[in-house]
Specification:
The chain is α+β, with helices and mostly antiparallel strands. The chain is 26% helix and 25% strand. The chain folds into two domains: 90 residues, Rieske Iron-sulfur Protein, CATH 2.102.10; 235 residues, Naphthalene 1,2-dioxygenase Alpha Subunit, Chain A, domain 1, CATH 3.90.380.10. The radius of gyration is 22 Å and the shape is globular. It binds FE2/S2 (inorganic) cluster and fe (ii) ion.
Length: 405
């Protein structure tokens, strides 16, 4: 499918409907997704506590790309493209590690922790190492959360940082640690996974465990006295109740989305757990449980659930046209000791069971979309964020030529 065909398809797509099959199956559209969206957006790579020591690194992988997220010095994190400057081999082949120097496994070229070439045997007298280093991509830290962007000139991250500073401050996520991280493979196009995350129309039928405690599953509970009471308590607990929505078409720059919203949990629940009771110590500067939770979005494919005692980060990445993955990270206070003040199984129970259910419903969605009889269907009033995501996506697809920020 050429560019003109894709633009035409996006232009003819009916507003307020799910998209035609090609957007979930066509390899050329998938390639356009990677080039336009993933190569130009701020993407969550991980948390700084995952690389505490100089030389610690982990890989961030997406489609054909692999990036070494490296603690180069005590206060410098670099994102180095994991492609050797000799003949292009992957350099790091494990998911994470700690290195004094990076040595390519193919012909043993070696690089320092900032990616500068240091050693290359048998290259002749005139060979000059000094101008050769691993390609770096842009990195930004947001309260300890590491974001990367593949673009040479990405949208500024400053509006994201400024726009969320007040909201994120009480959680002190820069002092948090990863209590658990898990990847859930999904046999679907990445957009079906994001569309599913963006709506809670499916929550009541598909997530009984979640729906017991979360008002998002029940629109009637989103307003009224209970909601107002929780917002009042949130302020008393030191939490922001700002409503921020700079996502998709409202984002300050391409791929630099952000949103923050505090809302009431169902009465009797103070966090996202099996019984609604705390599963870890209060985060950061939060003084007490307000009975609420926060939805956070940073960039087009990273979301988080922020409770008073833990945060669950969600990142969606494409692997191929019909395969994606959801990476889930549970964050707790950095000094919280597992087995003493939190139990990992209890901490992760709700979002593990919910994500597994999502895997199944998203895969069923893809299977249905693959049918020759599938046609776009109308979205409900509970799918407004999905509608926004689709409008932004189609808008992005419609623009001809190179996407520039
Ligand atoms: S490809 Fe890395 S040293 Fe040859
Ligand atoms: Fe879900």
């Amino acid at each position: 499918m050429n560019e003109q065909d894709i633009i035409e398809l996006a232009t003819n797509q009916p507003e307020g409907f799910s998209m035609v099959q090609e957007f979930y199956r066509d390899p050329d559209i998938y390639q356009r997704d990677i080039e336009r969206i993933f190569m130009n957006s701020w993407l969550y790579a991980g948390h700084q506590s995952e690389i505490p020591q100089v030389g610690d690194w982990f890989l961030f992988e997406l489609a054909d790309e692999s990036v070494i997220i490296m603690r180069s010095t005590e206060d410098e994190i670099n994102a180095l493209i994991n492609v050797c400057r000799h003949r292009g081999s992957r350099i790091c082949v494990e998911n994470k590690g700690c290195s004094k120097i990076l040595v390519c496994p193919y012909h043993a070229w070696s690089y320092d922790l900032k990616g500068q070439l240091r050693g290359a045997a048998h290259m002749g007298e005139s060979f000059d190492k000094s101008g050769i280093s691993l390609k770096k991509i842009h990195v930004e830290l947001l309260a300890g959360l590491i974001f990367v962007n593949f673009a040479d000139r990405p949208s500024s991250f400053a509006p994201v940082r400024d726009g969320l500073a007040n909201c994120l401050s009480p959680y002190r996520l820069e002092n948090a640690k990863v209590a658990h991280r898990q990847t859930y493979p999904i046999e679907s196009n990445w957009k079906l996974a994001v569309e599913n995350y963006c709506e809670c129309y499916h929550c009541a039928p598909s997530h009984p465990e979640y729906a017991r405690g979360h008002s998002l599953a029940w629109p009637a509970q989103r307003t009224g006295q209970e909601h107002e009471d929780v917002l009042g308590r949130a302020q008393a607990c030191g939490l922001s109740t700002d409503f921020v929505n700079r996502t998709y078409l409202e984002a300050p720059g391409f791929g630099a989305d952000f949103a923050y919203e505090r809302y009431a949990l169902i009465r009797g629940h103070v966090t996202g757990s099996e019984d609604g009771k705390p599963v870890a110590p209060l985060l950061g500067d939060i003084r007490d449980y307000d009975g609420g939770a926060t939805d956070l979005q940073v960039g087009p494919v990273t979301y988080a659930l922020m409770y008073c005692d833990h945060v669950v980060m969600y990142r969606f990445t494409p692997l191929s046209v019909g395969q994606s993955e959801c990476d889930v990270t549970w964050l707790v206070n950095g000094d919280a000791q597992e087995g003493r003040v939190y139990d990992r199984d209890k901490l992760t129970w709700l979002w593990d069971v919910t994500t597994q259910a999502d895997q199944v419903i998203i895969e069923h969605n893809q299977q249905g979309v693959n049918s020759r009889f599938y046609r776009p269907g109308p979205l409900s009033t509970m799918e407004d964020f999905t509608r926004n995501f689709l409008s932004w996506y189609l808008d992005t697809m419609k623009k001809p030529g190179i996407l520039s920020n």
